[in-house]
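Revision sheet: structure tokens.
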Amino acid sequence: MREILINGKPFELHAVTGRVAAANKQLETRVSGGGGGGYAHQGTGFTNAVHISSTTVTHDQVYVVDGGGREHALRLQNWNLACREGHELTAVWLIKKGKTSGPYVAIRNATIDETKYDDKELAKASRPIWPLAALAAPVVLKFSALSLFIVAAALIYRWYLGVRGRNELKASGRLLAAA
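Predicted:
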């Protein structure tokens, strides 16, 4: 474990490297729907359209044995990790200062030379808090058009800083240097 600053916010950077002892992949399909029904009276009426959607969630469970012989269970969702027994794997996760757990942000399979990142979590960690101060603008400026523009611009800028920070973290190699 080592400390790392991301946009001035302190995080603990954790990593485990070892050989894959076992790997299991399961796919879960989630189906949701709604609509339908309608009304009919004396030969007239209407029906509502039925909307159905599905998403597939990939569950990877990987057991890694580190250099000291300790076994670690990695339970991953939507990483779709390519690995099998014997591959050398490094998993990196971030824990925000004051918290006890955090998300995996990078996984490297050295055997097949493949690195995957959780872009959503990296962008979230990279977003600064200060643009949120713009949320006070509507109150201060009495909900004028200018205040709404300030809020929209600040939120877009915060999103942009998160994406830029995420890309810089990936390119810098700081995350995988912890291993």
